[in-house]
Amino acid sequence: MRAMFKELNPPSRVLMGPGPSDVHPRVLKAMATPLIGHLDPSFLQIMNETMELMRTVFETKNELTLAMSGTGSSGMETVFVNLLEPGDKVVIGVNGLFGERMVDVAERCGAEVIRIEASWGDIIRPEQVEEVLQEHAGVKAVAVVHAETSTGALQPLSEISQLVHEHEALLIVDAVTSLGGVKVGIDENEVDACYSGTQKCISAPPGLSPVTFSRRAAEAMAKRKSKVQSWYLDLSMIQNYWGQERFYHHTAPISMNYALREALRIVMEEGLENTWERHWKLGRALQSGLEGMGLSLHVAENIRLPQLTSVYIPDGVEDTLVRKQLLEQYGIEIGGGLGALKGKVWRVGLMGFSCQPRNVLLFLAALEEVLAQQGAHVRRGEGRTIAAEIIQK
Amino acid sequence: MRAMFKELNPPSRVLMGPGPSDVHPRVLKAMATPLIGHLDPSFLQIMNETMELMRTVFETKNELTLAMSGTGSSGMETVFVNLLEPGDKVVIGVNGLFGERMVDVAERCGAEVIRIEASWGDIIRPEQVEEVLQEHAGVKAVAVVHAETSTGALQPLSEISQLVHEHEALLIVDAVTSLGGVKVGIDENEVDACYSGTQKCISAPPGLSPVTFSRRAAEAMAKRKSKVQSWYLDLSMIQNYWGQERFYHHTAPISMNYALREALRIVMEEGLENTWERHWKLGRALQSGLEGMGLSLHVAENIRLPQLTSVYIPDGVEDTLVRKQLLEQYGIEIGGGLGALKGKVWRVGLMGFSCQPRNVLLFLAALEEVLAQQGAHVRRGEGRTIAAEIIQK
């Protein structure tokens, strides 16, 4: 019994879906660096530097800022299992798939979940949060998704944050798709617990989840009466490995930490504000280009993310065939719709290293050709002209 | 606020601790391969091939064989949270740190844990298992550590397996350090649930955990009354992503899967039995070499692992100073003792790509020099001569 397969030889892709994004060659090179041990003094130095870089990109002074050894969803679970105990009340904003996922995770912690709903593509309004907090006493935390990857909506944080803290609750934010693409501002927005991923606007491969916790959140965790239900994600132990004690918990994914450090170094070299500006500019170019072609966007302009765009599939056009042709003919990956938006929208990402002028132009050109092949009515060339004007400004 | 750090430049190491082990250049090269999406048909093909390779190295036909998106400890948690429900009885063999860890994880699942103890360095005896199973009715599972990384003891499985199945319980095996180093034989030993790591004898970087489940275990999971407490590790959803449905659960760590596939390909090229033979031969060379120097080993010969050796620290020698000198002067990493063995033993690994004749000789020579510097009585040259004889046979 011996399974034999050929040399690894994946096709060349331009990753313009909802993540992973393309990875900079410098990050790939970092991944190929020979390993050192997870308790090697040199690795502990690398961890310290990565923590400092994460603090910078999160815009926080939070000491408890580290990378969990799993993908973004493990970061979500980390936040909920560490902050919540059975019976705790948590308010969760549900305006897309990742809000739904937070509900599922929180319920598995035995928490009492109070949902605030908005339609997919819309955002949670401060009035909704206020109403719920007035109605329910003793809410421990309120959770919202900063950048809903299933829709492309950008959730404003500051007003909600103020309300949450007036009611002495903790603010939990999902920043998986926002971090490194738009301003998250952990300290400025007084976010108490936040998790992100590496494979969106940070453009490292998937496999780690940067998380950060305020002092208030750390105090809440210290007051727990029960053990955290997950051993693997128990911060009371993990922070002893990332902190001064360097106490062994589990073997950190060495190469992934190499990659995250290099990806964050690249963000720092460009500068955080320049990075956001690039995402905003090219997102606008792409979105104006799609509208210029005659297509419609799902999310209203004032709450629309630059790094992830939901565009309606034109009538009479077959969702999967278009995505298949983009992938097979041009090597371009975009995402399909999820949940109620399945078959109705495509999700186009411009994240991190994928967020480049040439990708905007390439995608608009390729989509135009593929749609034309299917006989869809698109205004030829107009979208690209509009996009190019924005890019060249 | 902009954190700036220099180019990644870790020191060159020879990894001879309890893991991670050195990674083959071909695996490093695979890590540097540009990414494709986690739902790309080409990635699904890579996943299928990796599953087939994992089945071969586990020696199983189990359909439910996949890699969890976390390190070996996440695989441990996966097995317990999916198999156990609150109130379930589980028998756990504790003869080292990783047995203790299983107890901790199982208790967090709300399980009733019945411990079987053996001293650190010893193994769990079939008579102990039989006694406990006769005493306690309705035990759902019995768990043992195949290769105790904290001691270097190799747990025989076949007799215990027979007893466990006579009592209609499931057999859980921790094969983190054994898989790819010594025979695990999932089907032959009728193991129902097993987890491993990538960074030991498979010699891929840490970050994934291969797991496998028998049909019996799959049936037990299908009969659960409650949701799995971990969303991230819930196999009822994850198997839909790895299985025919290809239903999105979380973003798989693409690059880590590239690496695991390549590392397993290397194992297959050598051949599983040849790989075991290399570990046994070089382990014996190292162990005989250490005894030839005048040092003593912690684990009895008949239950001693080849890939991890616990050697007593000679009297009057300072544990951390020796490890520091090995690391700083020769770039060799070995491990210290854990728990009751802290300061009493060193743990020397010969795992996967680190298990090479030159490393045996290098380590014996380096240890001899460092011990001599500290004035310890070692027989100069004798250990190496014995080791070289075994290697050259």
Biggest interface in this structure? A-B, 84 and 84 residues
Assembly of the depicted chains: homodimer
How do the helices and strands follow one another from N- to C-terminus of chain A? EHHEHEHEHEEEHEEEHHHHEHEEEHH
* Number of structural domains of chain A: 2
Structural class of chain A: alpha/beta
Any idea what the shape of chain A is?
globular
Q: Helical percent range of chain A?
A: 40-55%
Order of strands, widest sheet of chain A: 2-10-9-8-5-3-4
Spans where pLDDT lies below 50 across 5 or more residues of chain A: none
Number of helices of chain A: 13
Radius of gyration of chain A: 21 Å
Major beta-sheet overview of chain A:
7 strands, mixed
Binding site for substrate (chains A, B): 347
Organism (chains A, B): Aneurinibacillus migulanus (Bacillus migulanus)
Family (chains A, B): Belongs to the class-V pyridoxal-phosphate-dependent aminotransferase family.
GO molecular function, one term (chains A, B): alanine-glyoxylate transaminase activity
Describe the 3D structure.
Chains A, B: GO terms for molecular function: alanine-glyoxylate transaminase activity; L-serine-pyruvate transaminase activity. Chains A, B: InterPro entries: Aminotrans_V_dom, PyrdxlP-dep_Trfase, PyrdxlP-dep_Trfase_major, PyrdxlP-dep_Trfase_small, SP_NH2Trfase/AEP_transaminase. Chains A, B: Pfam families: Aminotran_5 (PF00266). The structure is a homodimer of 393-residue chains. Chain A is α/β, with parallel strands linked by helices. Chain A has 2 domains: 25-268, 3-Layer(aba) Sandwich (Aspartate Aminotransferase, domain 2); 272-392, Aspartate Aminotransferase, domain 1 (Alpha-Beta Complex), CATH 3.90.1150.10. Chain A has helices at 25-31, 41-58, 72-83, 97-108, 126-135, 158-166, 215-222, 235-242, 254-270, 272-293, 319-330, 357-373, 382-392; strands at residues 14-15, 64-68, 89-94, 112-117, 139-145, 147-148, 153-154, 170-174, 193-195, 209-213, 308-312, 332-333, 335-336, 345-349. In chain A, the strands form 4 sheets. Chain A has a 7-stranded mixed β-sheet, sandwiched between helices. The first copy, chain A, has a 3-stranded antiparallel β-sheet with strand order 11-14-13, with helices on one face. A two-stranded parallel ribbon of chain A has the order 1-12. Chains A and B meet through helix 1, helix 2, helix 3, helix 4 and helix 9 of A and helix 1, helix 2, helix 3, helix 4 and helix 9 of B.
